[in-house]
Design goal:
The complex is a heterodimer. Chain A contains 15 helices and 19 strands. Chain A is α+β, with helices and mostly antiparallel strands. Chain A has two domains: about 230 residues, 3-Layer(aba) Sandwich (D-Maltodextrin-Binding Protein, domain 2), CATH 3.40.190; about 230 residues, Dipeptide-binding Protein, domain 3 (Roll), CATH 3.10.105. In chain A, a hairpin with a 2-residue loop joins strand 6 and strand 7. Classes of the chains: A alpha+beta, B mainly alpha.
Amino acid sequence: MASYKKRALAVVAAASMAVSLAACGGGGSSSNQASDGGTLYYYVFKPYEHMDPQRTYLGVQMSNFTRMNYRALVSFPIATDPKEASTPTADLATDAGTASNGSKTWKFTVKDGVKWEDGKAITCEDFKYGASRVFATDVITGGPSYILSYLDVPAGKDGLPSYKGPYKKTGQAAFDKAITCDGKTITYNFKKPWPDFNLAIAALHMMDPYRQDKDKGDKSNYTVFSNGPYKLEGGVWNKEKGGTFVRNDQYDPKTDDKKIREANPDKIIFQVGNPTETIYDRIIADAGNDKFAVTSQSLPPSYYSQIQGEVADRAVNVESPFVDYLSPNFLQMKDPKVREALKVSTDAESWITAGGGEKAYSPAESVVNPVTVGYEDNPAFSGPQSGDPDAAKKLLKEAGVSTPYPITFTYPSSETADKQAAALKQGWEKAGFKVTLDGLGDTYYDEINKKSNKADVVWAGWGSDWPSAITVTPPLFDGRPNGVTDPKVPTNGSDYGNYNSDAFNKLVDQAQNATSLDDQTKALQEADKVLGQDVAYIPLEITKFNFVHGSKVTDFENTPASAMYPDLGPIGVSK
Amino acid sequence: MSLQESQLESLESSSLADSAGNQAVAGLSPTKLAIRRFRKDRLSMVSFVVVALYILAALAAPFLVRLGVIDPFTFNNSEKYLDIAQGGIPHGAFGGMSLEHPLGLEPGTGRDVMSRLWYGITFSLTIALSATLIAVAIGTTMGIISGFSGGKTDAVVGRVIDLTLSFPQTLMLLALSGVMIGLLTEKLNVPAGDVANGLYVILVLAIFGWPSVARLIRGQVLSIREREFIDAARLLGASRRRLYFKEVLPNLWAPVLVSFTLTMPAYISAEAALSYLNVGIKPPTPTLGNILKSSISYSSADFAFFFFPAFLIAIIVVSFNLLGDGIRDALDPKADR
């Protein structure tokens, strides 16, 4: 249940996002006085795939980088108020940036006195070089690629940008025109309007500066060359073990804003590899260094009953920015009536109970998270959460298919997911489907990524990349960039249901060319309705996070800027 | 176990004493002698009864499911059964034990634990039994051929055995599962799902299991082939096939039976271990392995739920091992241990 978070990311905000602290007196642990110094332990289960700023795409990791070692032109502040938390704040730049030419041109000025960990100043050229790396799609893989379609670089015959990155240098002249440096001022020129470009900078690390002399291409994947308050001891991350972040003596707090990072602990030690159960056995026991520990793993449902007494004071339960949903496969399940029947008979309530109940999930009525700007309930999914098998039966009869109608449901297997899948199976079978469950292992996304995949319905999860629905429905359901419309492409990108609709694509074009956020939002709301009518997806729930931290951890907050994971911005440890 | 052996010896000497006495002596075949020795050993008898019970349970489960006596699939996931706020742990002591659900309910879904375990025994034993049968059949045949022919054939079979034994089989199982199951369903028209997944485990366990049986049998054959009755059969012009299966094989049933009862428990635990690695029959179809897998994280929240599958696997594995030992002792009391 974690791999999807790989693509998903940072977030935003709404009132509902207010952190609900389980019996936690006085907001996290702010009752304890934040203090400088000490060592914080951070436990991670799965090895990180990248530490390179242009290659990370994991929400929790990007937020940690922002707070510790990779500063950007603008960053999101530490705030639980959704509005404040999604306002880009000047970081390495002197202000939040100025847009002109209908949001097709963005200008930023780099602050004076900002330095790399070796003492050299961060220049405009470093930002330009960082952005250029995203174009080397054969080397710099894994990260977000939005600027490929936005930046004003002419497309080649293959439809991809003619610029091939700083290693090959093909088309360098075109790139040099798209991003220009004038002293400390950097200018980005786009092909189409990008009204929320500074949100993207703050949420992702693709626009981060990168020092050309430190770039060894793929070999730099685990190298951390810091410009923030912490630097990685040794400079290279150990994939299997983690690493230790220590104070960066070249970092000048005067160039920074306490609203973005307080940098309280002297040291942050990352330990990779222990399974979730082990991590929580230790944190709940609260002995030794575990008193100073936090983790990005959410507490498994089998541990909920241990959150009592003293442990409850160290526990939080917050709604995450991630929505789980089902994608009917449009190459397999072609009859709209059958898809409608599938939707109507989906027992999301049993799915939620099997996955841990109300502590683990909230009901969802759209694939867009309610914390996203311009969210609206999708009327197509307002039916009962527990499904309506009788209505579904009727729909199957109208469709004229013979029942039981055989379908295969593919999902990433885990102890919890297996039970949840059985819950869906039971609901669907009441309506006249015959369900085969196909729980897959680590190869899950590789499998559902194939157009030849024979599953009738697949599971997926997503969170917005920055606080806009434009990073939700278009990347998930626009068949064109995902390769669904091109028969030569064997995969479907993130469009796991191989969905493509002209009506939807038109609204996406409208949203992507909108010059104001209001117009964009309106078009995206319409687009979501089209998806609902076609049953392009069936929302299951909004994931909730449950975290427990050590007793000596102070100012433990989950903010929209940290994708509701523990925010390293305000955190500290007491003695 | 030395005590046990001396007991057996005294048993033999007493029967000798009997024959020396005046009472009318009934001649006992070697089989009858073995059965008699086996029945004297209490531990073997207990394990035999346990194994028999498991097999009966396994045979009965599919009928009981069809008749609705046990129900491993229906959800009881309302607030009445589960404490939804605490992550769906069943209400009541010991994982929600009640008359209706003697071993409690599964957290999160409220499925009946006893029914799932009972039905799981069927699938686990079917897999272990099929894999054992295939492994022993191939192993015995290869062992006879290799031991009896000697020379080049023996060398070739010997190297194949070495090669197979040196493969990291768990790794192979994991790495090949996607491709092989695809092959089974697409090229051989095996129904996808439980049948294909189960068959895959059976085949791989058997393919990697036969060499140890073959080695054992080959050793036995080496001594048998030097006996007079083999020479006699040869002189009479018996065919190879006759020599293998009519002359040699009947003298091998003791080691075959022993390797059978000792391979079986290894495969029962292999099935459980493979479920943990996501290979094999998948939920919601229960097997002892995948039930155990789903229960591990509940070891502190709902101990009963974790305890029963682990307990059932431990019992069947120990019973089969003891049964194997007992059979070996009974058939060949002087065997070196």
